Amino acid sequence: MGTFGANQLNVAGRSLAVPLEVTIPITLRVLPSGDVSVHVDAFRSNLEALSLELGYSRPLVLPSVRVKVGTQTLKLNQRRLEAELEAKHGVILQALQELAAELLRERAPDFLNDLIARHFQFPFREINQMLPPGAPQDLPPHRYYRWGMKPSRIERTTHGTRVGLDAFVDDPEKPIAATDTKTETPKNRRPPRLEIEADSDISAAVAFDQSLINRILSLSHGRGYYETTRTSDGSVIRLLAPPTLQALPTEMKSGQAIGRAKIRVSLEHRLPKGSGLRNLIREQLVTNPIRYEIDAWLNLEKADTGALRVSVERLDERSLRIAPSSIRISALAGSVYAEFYSVIRSANATLTKAPHALIERLPIPQEVGYIPLELERVGTDDAGYLLLYLKTRKGATHDLEP
Q1: End-of-domain residue from the set 96, 119, 142
Q2: Helices 78-87 and 89-102, interaxial angle, to 10°?
Q3: Can you give the residue range of the structural domain that contains 45?
Q4: What is the mean pLDDT of residues 36-62?
């Protein structure tokens, strides 16, 4: 018979006072295997309750109909048919609303669940390579550390969805840590304070336990990267134990929030004759080498590369503790400390001009659960967490193969 239809068919709300609302319930479960189960449930909408109007361009697209009765030929009266359709406008619109609502309730979830099953692979595991702190820059990639995240729990809160992640870092050369200093999270420790303003473009906030950084430092110490360091004055400094990082509250600097932490190091320092501490050697006030502990203040911030950078801002002279066995005459301990303070202040003056990178580049996952992300800012929480605030990466897409 030909074509029947309407051009520029559209359905619009008669009033903006009641907008269209569609709720897409998604159920996420962490399975015993560590995989994440994602299921889209029936949509909920107010489509059937909206006041809508139907529009289309006239005339209708109608077939050419001719009925021949004897010697007479009767043609379809297009104007009358359009008038009949106009009279049934409400019935047609109601049927369209019911059909659309049914598609949302029953067919759309099946379509999305099928799409997820065919194109997306779970679990949401993120594995990255990183140059070990203290390692030479030309280290072959196969010797890099591997670090990543995997989900442990998912829960809904009043502020959004909280996903518990287990972070890990491994040394491919030593599957079992050379010096296992992995810390247990205290059971009575409060959860991290993740602050995201309502109008912020932050898409996700991730809190890492400080033990992750301590694990990385421990692995580097196990490889011997920090075991011995030679300074410009010829001193030889040996690290006696893996350094331990402790997170502090976030601070504002130059209008920007940066993470703050301190790190405790235990050192054995062999002094050459021409070192800044030569007076101590000449006057035989200390043993050589001398042993001591000191704290260093760290900045954790976004590097130009988009990764997390951890740098030494200054040494804390108030935290200096010299081993009593290293001071030959205990009555002159004050003079020994005073000499050390002078050297520390000189080192801090150098760090002010050029902070020393403890971890030059800790890679941030490029996407989590197929959501492309990039680091926006870094924070810290004195309960023992590193805070990463991430936003959706612009221009990123995820292609679906047919």
Answers
A1: 119
A2: 60
A3: 5-119
A4: 73
